[in-house]
Amino acid sequence: MHPSPSLLMALVVILSLSLVVAMTALGVVWSHVRGLPVRIARLVDDLAQRQREMEGLLARIEASDSGRAHPPVESAPRAAPGPPNWASPDRRVDTVGPNAPGGPTLIAVPNLAAPSTPATAAASAALGRRFGPIWDLFDAGVTPEEIARRTDQPIGQVELILALRRQLTPAMPAGRA
């Protein structure tokens, strides 16, 4: 029994189309593989340039810090490129609200181990004036987290302010903050 000519023609067309698809895929893979050395060379050059820039910055930092003693800094291995993982469990980041002042807020910390002096009393009064709203919210039963949200302050700063108050006012309950 002989296959019909239309069946043979259909098989030839199917095989031809399969061959065209396979050759196209092979061509795409081949062009990608051929371009790899050029892309790799560009990446290596880019990394070398970045390394030279980092070494220059390090040399400038070392030159400016040559008179000061600093503890050694350990560098952690860097993960794959991408945005930093701010939410890692071993790192705490205090977020601030949109109305928070720029830059760090400096707090004058009195020497609380020394007996009360006029300077300590003045520092305590200054802290009371500056952070009275935070202390009032805490006295009203608001949690430090909620105080931080309401005042657009980092939670760490709110906790520090409340800890300073506990130092200044030993009668304040320690378990609340």
Give your account of this protein's structure.
It is built from 4 helices and no strands. The chain has 177 residues and is an all-alpha fold. The protein has 2 domains: 64 residues; 78 residues, no CATH class. Helix 2 packs across helix 4 and helix 3 packs across helix 4. The longest helix has 60 residues.
Rg, rounded, reads: 34 Å
So what's the oligomer here? single chain
**How many runs of DSSP E, i.e. beta strands?**
0
**Range of helix content:** 55-70%
Describe the main β-sheet briefly.
none
Describe how the helices and strands are arranged.
Elements: H1 5-64, H2 118-139, H3 144-151, H4 155-168
Quick tags:
single chain, 177 residues, mainly alpha, 2 domains, 4 helices
What's the short version?
With 177 residues, the protein is mainly alpha-helical.
